[in-house]
Records
---
Amino acid sequence: MPIPTTEKIWMDGELVPWDEARIHVLTHSLHYGSGVFEGIRAYETRKGAAIFRLTDHIDRLFRSAKIFTIEIPYTSGQIVEACKETVRANDVRSCYVRPIVYLGYGEMGLNPLLAPVNVAIAVWPWGAYLGEEGLTHGVRMKISSWRRHDPNIIPPAAKGTGQYINSQLAKVEAIKAGYDEAIMLNPQGLVAEATGENIFIVRDGSLITPPLSAGALIGVTRDSVMAIARDLGVDVREGDLHRTDLYTADEVFVCGTAAEITPVREIDDRVVGEPGPLTKKIQEVFFAAVKGEVEQYSEWLEHV
Ligand code: PPE
């Protein structure tokens, strides 16, 4: 689906019209995948648009940049403000927010240290990432034949643009085989995450997700799910998972900013079933929290 356009995109401190937000074809990051980015959502609340855990996302953006030795020419406070300004300028209440830090035009060759650093922030309305049907009835997943990055090859702790070619290989394989999404194992064969989501299983009433050391991104939604589940009195832990733990789980779901909380109803043609009670409860609390309907989680909302 083509991106629904909005009015303005923030580029290096200025709001420029959507159609004029252009870059040179010799932009370093286009050639070498040397950017870092974030995916954030703003939701409509009684008090206007609020960006969900904006500061946590921007902190992760700065950590990603640090890993790749990219010096962002703004403070995190300035980027937080710029995200709010972009949402305000576009008069959208509920939208996806995409800040990207990229190495710009001026230098070619692999040494990224000489290239200029540019920052852009775009916002647009983005519906259910894995489909409305997926949100309510669950998606069908395939374990990918492509492995997640080894941390000493490409660090999964960073959200770098280039690392998503790995996700895309897995995504294409899954879609061409007739599934909705792929689950990726790490080089040791343990479950890491999905192409753009973290993964959770429910087993005997406990909620289990792979540790970051298994190659999972340090997901903001993952963290929110763990907090919600703990507050519901559910036993939550990180644990190594084999693919068969997914096949035999009582419930499985994936979560991420774009995917929100999407139940999984089938993995490699093994039926997990319709969304289970804990998945539905966590979905319910999460969707209420992002809309500002749960007092306990009001500090997660950053009003624009
Ligand atoms: N793992 C990966 C690999 C990942 O890309 C995401 C976010 C997550 C886990 C969940 O992280 P968080 O959003 O902090 O809960 N993926 C983003 C990109 C999606 C896209 O297609 O682009 C997102 O959800 O915004």
---
Amino acid sequence: MIGLGIESTAHTFSCAILEKKGKQGKILSDVRKIYRPPEGEGIHPREASRHHLENSAIVLSECLQEAGVTIKDLDIISYAAGPGLGPCLRVGAVVARSLASYYNIPIYPVNHALGHIELGKLLTGAKNPLVLLVSGGHTMILAFLNKQWRVFGETLDITLGQLLDQFGRSIGFASPCGKNIEDLASSTSNYILLPYSVKGNDVSFSGLLSATKSIVSKSKADACFSLQETAFAMMSEVVERALSFTRKKELLIVGGVAANKRLSEMLQDVCKRHGCKFFVAPQKYSGDCGSQICWTGLLESQVKKGVSLEDTFVTQSWRLDSVKVDY
Ligand code: AMP
Ligand code: MG
């Protein structure tokens, strides 16, 4: 089976082609163009969707060329139908619908968060992990039970990616800022006390964001270091509690923030204490990409014939824990 996956939920427009043989998946191509907002600003949905529209044709043709296939070779097309920014989601959906209807190819709407997890599992070999999904759009701890991903903790306000990006922009970095903050944080080990907010097994980051902004005048590096230490310690606490409760023997981190080395280091310590295997999605595929959507579509095609064009949709707030996973 050969699939095309289209990702356009937020900053990234990406097309990828994967081949599925039995349980094996091979990435034949994964092409991306990323919308970069002006320095100091966040994603403007209309501007991002304009970027996606302008780049969709070139990304699609490069992805087909790199994979060495034509549209007629495709067995299925999948697109990220949510959650995400409405104007951005619609671009991916329109491209997918146009190809599916003109070439008569089965079409699959895919949940973006599920895409992060399924590709993470494929690329790491994790079988039945507790999942930490940390990205621009999500901060969730998840475990799979009875055909659904169940939430064992999540953010009550902004996501971990938003915390890093909003703080980074306030000190002059261009979004996404996670890597800049990580680099600056690694130059110091001077911890300044910041508010630590875990409620039950959920986390809250907005107070931490304001407090970090208020200590920045002393040292940007100390502020970055203290922000990471506090936010990642909060995540480690809730992951540890979820591991104790679920008794999972694997932990998998996915999402753009999974690229952070300090986060992995802290969670590896947690895993050691619980005799748990540690997996992290490879950096190239931890952030948003078409491969995530393509692989999930290919998995769904094992049990579903796709949806009719009239039933295709986009949903800005499509929660992962409402998705039935039948494959
Ligand atoms: P995604 O929404 O999955 O594409 O993830 C994007 C998020 O990942 C943004 O908030 C980035 O700032 C964040 N990110 C990327 N690289 C790193 C890193 N090395 N450390 C922390 N956050 C990162
Ligand atoms: Mg994402």
